[in-house]
Amino acid sequence: MTANPAITPAMIERARERIREHVRVTPMVASASLTERMGVPVSLKLEHQQDTGSFKLRGATNAILKLDEGGRARGVVGASTGNHGRGLARAAARAGVRCVICMSSLVPANKVEGIRGEGAEVRIVGKSQDDAQVEVDRLVTEEGMTMIPPFDHADVITGQGTLGLEIHDQAPEIDTVLVQLSGGGLISGVALALKSRNPDIRVIGVSMERGAAMHASLAAGKPVLVEELPTLADSLGGGIGLDNRHTFDMVRSLVDEVVLVSEAEIAAGIRHAYFEERQVIEGSGAVSVAALLAGKVKPGGPAVALLSGGNIDTALHFRVLSGEDVDVAEE
Ligand SMILES: *Cc1c(COP(=O)(O)O)cnc(C)c1O
Fold first, then answer.
1. What mean pLDDT, rounded, does the chain reach?
2. 98 within 8 A of 121, measured Cβ to Cβ
3. Is 75 within 8 Å of 145 (Cβ atoms)?
4. Is residue 90 helix, strand or coil?
5. Closest to 269 measured CA to CA, from 306, 228, 216, 214
6. CA distance 14 to 135
7. Which residues contact 316 (CB under 8 A, 6 or more apart)?
8. Burial category of 49 from C-beta neighbours within 10 Å (exposed 0-12, middle 13-18, buried 19 and up)
9. Is 308 among the catalytic positions?
10. Model confidence pLDDT, tens digit, residues 69-90
């Protein structure tokens, strides 16, 4: 195996300049209710207010703007129908680059329309994510398109890392930051950025109990497969890749602790965000607040909880808010 190109804080600073005109600087607000509960100042970073509803726009924009002329002319391709797909489609449309998102015929119509609405070409192939991936690979080898993966890619990681610089600028006195963790592109970039500014900042990763691939991999000392289970935190589903190149090592060396939250705790996080903070966030975005409310993280000083995404189905949001004991595994 060849050595990984080092991913450095300077690359994150350059990514920030590169994407500056293309992404929003999202607000940081004090949370009176969490401050009172936790006994330390707690702020919320409202990244669910980013264009497309999640931070994924940052990494996708950075990756696209780094393509050379030929790469831009041939376009980009992906297989995500979630937040990464949306971010990639929007970033490509803004840069005037062709974007094809491949998906199976089982993807619900509203998701297909969501991706199309961002200006991407949707290609429906086969009946599984694997079939869609075969088409992605074909477009890469036969048409020279560039695949932009959702997390394990230097330009994606450094793009997400711009969020860490922004957090530090808005809250320089922080002690602890809670960050969502799935494939680890987000937390790798954010932790590298924050620790380059102040190595004493504690970065806590939060995943759901149901199918926490990075947590299981850290425990095993190598990337492992976990069963993918239905969860309210659907944007945190999926593995980290058995051939993981960057994020496993970065999470292992940069993240201070990983905690897991239950479905009921995630639901409580969604409710708290709405009723106490007036924020509509998806389950994945709520795990940071959930970890605080559940007492699973006890910050020793000023803390920031990241709200990473807001794309929740309205009917599901309503059911959670109304206090229904939603179990997505039974649906
Ligand atoms: C993708 C995503 C995450 C997790 O990001 P990783 O880089 O895979 O760890 C967290 N929250 C939301 C809303 C997401 O879309």
1. 95
2. yes
3. yes
4. helix
5. 306
6. 33
7. 326, 328
8. middle
9. yes
10. 999 999 999 998 899 999 999 9
Model confidence over 191-203: pLDDT tens digits?
A: 999 999 999 999 9
Cβ(54) to ligand 1 under 6 A?
yes
Q: Answer yes or no: is the C-beta of 85 below 6 A from any ligand 1 atom.
A: no
For tokens 């991999």, what's the residue? 217
CA of 49 relative to ligand 1 center, distance in Å = 14
Residues of the chain with pLDDT > 90, as a percent, come to: 89
CA distance 262 to 248: 23
φ, ψ for residue 101 (rounded to 5)? -110, 120
Instruction: For ligand 1, say whether the CB of 207 is within 6 Å of any of its atoms.
Output: no
31 is catalytic: no
**Chain Cα centroid distance, residue 167:** 15
- Spell 181-207 as b/e; 16+ CB within 10 A means b: bbbbbbbbbbbbbbbbeeeebbbbbbb
Measured from the CB, is residue 184 less than 6 Å from ligand 1? Answer: yes
Catalytic residue among 56, 182, 188, 235: 56
Amino acid 269 reads G
Which has the closest alpha carbon to 120: 85, 148, 147, 146? 85
- Residue whose entry in the numeric block shows the structure tokens 């939250």: 261
Token couple for 91: 């970033």
Report the alpha-carbon distance of residue 308 to residue 330 in Å, rounded. Answer: 26
Residue 59: CB partners within 8 Å, gap ≥ 6?
87, 151, 153, 155, 156, 157, 158, 159, 160, 185, 189
